[in-house]
Amino acid sequence: MPRLQWTRATRATVLALVGALSLTGCPGDEDDTPDSGVKVDAGTKTDAGTDTDAGSDAGSVDTGIPWDGGAVGSFSCEGKAQATLSFAPGQEEELQDQVNTMAECTTVQLAAGTYTFDNAITIRQKGITLVGAGKGTKGEGTGGASSTVLVFSNAAANSNGLDVVGDRFTVSDLAVWNAKKDAIRVESSTDVVMRRVRTEWAQENKEDNGKYGLYPVKSKYVVIEDCEAYNAADAGIYVGQTEYAVVRNSVAKQNVAGIEIENTKYAYVLGNTAQDNTTGLVVFDLPGNPIMGTDVRVKNNIITGNNRNNFAAAEASSSTVSQVPAGTGTFMLASRRVELTGNTWGNNNTVDVAVLSGLVIEDDLALWAPGGGNFASSDIYIHDNTFQGGSGDNVDNGNLSPKRQLGQALAALYTYGETQGAKGVEHLVWDGVDPFGHARSELNPINICFTNNTLPSGTVNAIADLDMVAAGTLAASGNFAGGWALTRHYPANKAEFACSGFSPALTIGDFIK
Q: Which of 512, 447, 23, 510 is nearest to 263 (CA)?
């Protein structure tokens, strides 16, 4: 990794070194204005026993998760008049007219083939089911005998593919191709199911591709299952500002972020594949959003080879993921009560797993007030996973940029660290920022647990505490030796990290094996 020459060490620069994540965040946050008149007490440690009622409701027969595709919200089509509308390719205009005026509890059936639209399919009704003949295969931009492809290549600028506000919405068995903005956007809705859906843009690595593939936001009871997402310029599969979500058995590849869980309460991310993205699978909160993300289980996912150069990193961009270095497997920022188990990481050039504090992107506590002071990362339980190796040895693919200053900071520290015997960035990196102000003698004040994980043969150190603010200050002034001396590097069995999770434990998804 190349040595960097730092020219100044202002406070703003140091904070940028630590976070490298924009506090303006994703476009889905644009309507939330923080109340700058409210202050948060940073001296109170997170209560791990707060907001832990996920999974306490009676479960469904299949999984025990009450919102796993069943009607949980107050709206139901039971006992109501229900209609079915059928369309074939060539009837796009009729379809657009009908969806604008259709009654609640309507099923729209789309025959196999290619449908070409010049504007979004806008749905503002409850109880709508949209079903095609199949999602087809990756790279299929036209429908076949058993696939339905909705094409938006020539649609109006800044329009979505499917644009939905409506409770009890289901979409399945179709593909959305080349949407101008978000492929499938569902907002402010309850009981949302996306099943066997593919979202894709024709060309790789284009920053003017649409931002999101599957994009449920500000919603409740969401299921995303057996879906695929490719080439999104922000996140392929996103769940944000939502309560109760399952993302299961889906594939995200060639996006900037593969799967993103943002400001979401009670999420279960199971059996997905996130490969060949800039960053694979991420969990974080941003300031200014009204939901404090908590109780997230990430289980049995494959998060490998996420080394795609960051094609969202345009100079004018301020999105969170535009500033993430290529080669980031998973990062958690301003996250709490997150359990990662049964996952596989490997060949992520920058780092497999990183835990970051929200204060490194925004130290004005008032801006975190809408989410109840959700700046602290705490209670992270990483256990029974497999780390294959091949990670942490080529930060940001060597393409270091001031736009992605987390990559610059890691490269600066570990370039010197190599002279001290470091073999690369450890599998788990904590930025070392403790929002509760404990002494550095307390090695793990935010309760990160790293236990019973399978590591590559010969692994010496698996955990790093970078003390990034202090170390970054020295590195930014060119004092690499002093910066490295402040970092700490531990074996996987370090007693302070060999904890058994948090209490009470997550109950979300306990019935899924």
A: 23
Strands 351-356 and 328-333: parallel
DSSP 66: T
Query: Rounded mean pLDDT of 85-109?
Result: 96
The closest alpha carbon to 43, from 447, 360, 439, 436, belongs to 436
Q: Which residues pair with 149 in a beta bridge?
A: 114, 175
Rounded (10°) angle between helices 405-419 and 468-476: 80
Check whether 14 has a pLDDT greater than 70: no
* C-beta separation of 397 from 430 below 8 A: no
Q: What's the burial of 9, exposed, middle or buried (CB within 10 Å: 0-12/13-18/19+)?
A: middle
Sequence letter at residue 86 = S
Name the 3-class secondary structure at 450: strand
Query: Is the confidence at residue 22, as pLDDT, over 60?
Result: no
Lowest mean pLDDT among 113-117, 414-418, 447-451: 414-418
Contacts of 193 (CB under 8 A, 6+ apart): 69, 169, 170, 171, 172, 222, 223, 225
Q: CA-CA distance, 362 to 452, in Å (whole number)?
A: 34
Peptide bond before residue 504 is cis, with ω within 30 degrees of 0: yes
Q: Is 9 a residue whose pLDDT tops 80?
A: no
Residue 215 contacts by C-beta under 8 Å, 6 or more apart in sequence? Answer: 28, 182, 183, 184, 185, 186, 235, 238, 240
pLDDT at 472: 82
**Model confidence at 429: pLDDT above 60:** yes
Domain boundaries, the chain: 1-23+286-513, 75-243
In the prediction, which pLDDT does 70 show? 63
Give me the phi and psi of 28, to 5 degrees please: -65, -10
Name the pTM for this structure.
0.89
- Give bridge partners of residue 303 from the DSSP assignment: 274, 345
